[in-house]
Design goal:
elongated; alpha+beta
């Protein structure tokens, strides 16, 4: 129920001294360790504009990241959401300003017919207009808090766009690394196929010479066919990664296939690993900033809900003017009206109080979401550090393994030609080399991917130009 009455001007002036209700926003805080468990105690500062992927020294990859930042559809959608949020700031606060409208009319009138008198048959024309004005006085900060919420949502939209950019960088570089990995795996598979065909040829030669059995030939043929079967799968996996790259760059699938078919090695970086300290994440991670801005908006929404519990005063006025013209002359009239109106909620079934409770709960949820985002960010950096600091040892060990198995294959093949060892020794050595080379390629790609994960986890690069 709304109670409306005219309020005396002195009381109105007293009410103008009101202030915004609801809690004032205070930035959240949570306890964080001084350093990551496997990191240093040195801050990395602002890494948002550091193009860390350039340490791979791959101009093609650099151009892909640049194109993706400009053309990725998810990023463009997030940027468009900023425009919407900017408009929402205006609509959320527009009610605090005077509302002025202009209304006009022009009416003609007359009568005709044999039965009408001369006086009745005359014509007249009336035109005029009015200017209604209304102004809601924001005594309890309803529009002020609404503006605060809208500004916080605008900040959150900017942070959301940064999240989209960081996600793009991560996905695009991972797809590029995987594409180069499958190219390497294809090269390994084709090299192994060549080696196994050579073994088959040698075995067939020894069978013709009576130094090998038909079983040896069949085993060699089986390994050749087994190797052949892996190539189509690797080719398909490679193309899937290239198609993903195209889509991430806002292009039709297969747009980049010809360009990517020019084989390049798996990206390798020798950049220094730097994780910074947990406190750096509050500044650098856009998802944390987005969660914090959502909390600010939710806090302001409490004030909006509380302001609706209190009286609302509006000043309303209208200026009217009209002119009537007929055969007897012209006549004009002007009028005006002005006065305040008080609207006071008396009984609403508890809806307004429930709105306040709901807003308070949403603010508490927003705080918990912010805290969860911070802890997840710390976990992601800790996890990335745990793997990336150990990748180098894995790669080094696998390089030594490949070298050893290649020596063993060369020795076993030479011995087989001389009849000193069986074909089984050669086939086992070939399998060992094939598996070790594939594992090495996977480890190199994993090392690159973990480097990407660490830099994404610390919030690096989304503001790079």
């Amino acid at each position: 129920m709304v109670l409306s009455r005219v309020t005396p001007v002195p009381l109105l002036l007293l009410l103008l001294a009101g202030c915004a209700v609801g809690p004032d926003y205070v930035a959240p805080a949570t306890a964080l360790p001084d350093k990551f468990s496997e990191g240093s105690s040195q801050s990395v500062g602002d890494v948002t504009d550091v193009a860390w992927w350039k340490s791979f020294n791959d101009p093609l990859l650099n151009s892909y990241v640049e194109a993706g930042m400009a053309q990725n559809l998810s990023v463009l959608q997030a940027l468009e959401a900023i425009v919407q949020a900017e408009a929402n700031v205006v609509t959320s606060t527009a009610g605090a300003f005077p509302q002025v409208n202009l209304q006009a009319y022009d009416t003609g009138a007359g009568a005709g017919g044999d039965g009408a008198s001369a006086q009745a048959r005359k014509t007249s024309n009336t035109f005029g207009g009015s200017v209604p004005v209304s102004w809601v006085l924001d005594l309890f900060g309803l529009y002020q808090r609404a503006g605060e919420a809208a500004m916080a949502q605008l900040d959150a939209a900017y942070a959301s766009a940064d999240v989209a950019k960081l996600t793009l960088i991560s996905s695009l570089i991972d797809s590029y690394i995987n594409a180069r990995l499958y190219q390497e795996r294809l090269a390994i598979a084709r090299s192994n196929l060549k080696s196994r065909r050579e073994t088959l040829r040698l075995t067939q030669f020894q069978l013709d010479a009576g130094a090998a059995s038909r079983l040896d030939v069949v085993q060699s043929e089986g390994l050749v066919n087994a190797q052949l079967s892996t190539i189509p799968q690797l080719e398909a996996a490679y193309r899937q990664q290239v198609y993903a790259l195209s889509t991430l760059m806002g292009l039709p699938a297969a747009t980049l296939i010809d360009q990517m078919n020019k084989v390049k090695p798996i990206p390798v970086t020798h950049a220094r690993l730097a994780s910074g300290v947990p406190a750096d994440l509050i500044r650098n991670r856009p998802d944390i900033r987005e969660a914090e801005r959502n909390l600010a908006a939710a806090t302001a929404a409490i004030g909006v809900a509380e302001a609706q519990l209190y009286p609302m005063i509006s000043l309303n006025g209208t200026l009217q003017a009209s002119v009537s013209a007929n055969s007897l002359g012209n006549a004009g009239q002007t009028s005006w009206s002005f006065g305040p109106t008080l609207s006071l909620p008396i009984f609403d079934g508890g809806a307004l109080r429930a709105n306040v409770s709901s807003a308070e709960s949403q603010a508490r949820q927003a705080y918990l979401a912010w805290k969860q985002t911070v802890l997840k960010a710390v976990q992601e950096v800790e996890t990335a550090l745990a793997v990336v600091t150990r990748d180098g040892r894995t790669v080094s060990a696998l390089r030594a393994t490949v070298a050893s198995y290649r020596d063993a294959l060369e020795l076993s093949t030479s011995s087989y030609r001389d009849g000193a060892t069986s074909l089984l020794d050669v086939l086992d050595a070939q399998r060992a080399v094939s598996d070790a080379e594939a594992s090495l390629a996977d480890a190199i790609a994993q090392q690159a991917g973990d480097f990407v994960a660490l830099n994404v986890a610390i919030g690096g690069g989304y503001a790079a130009q």
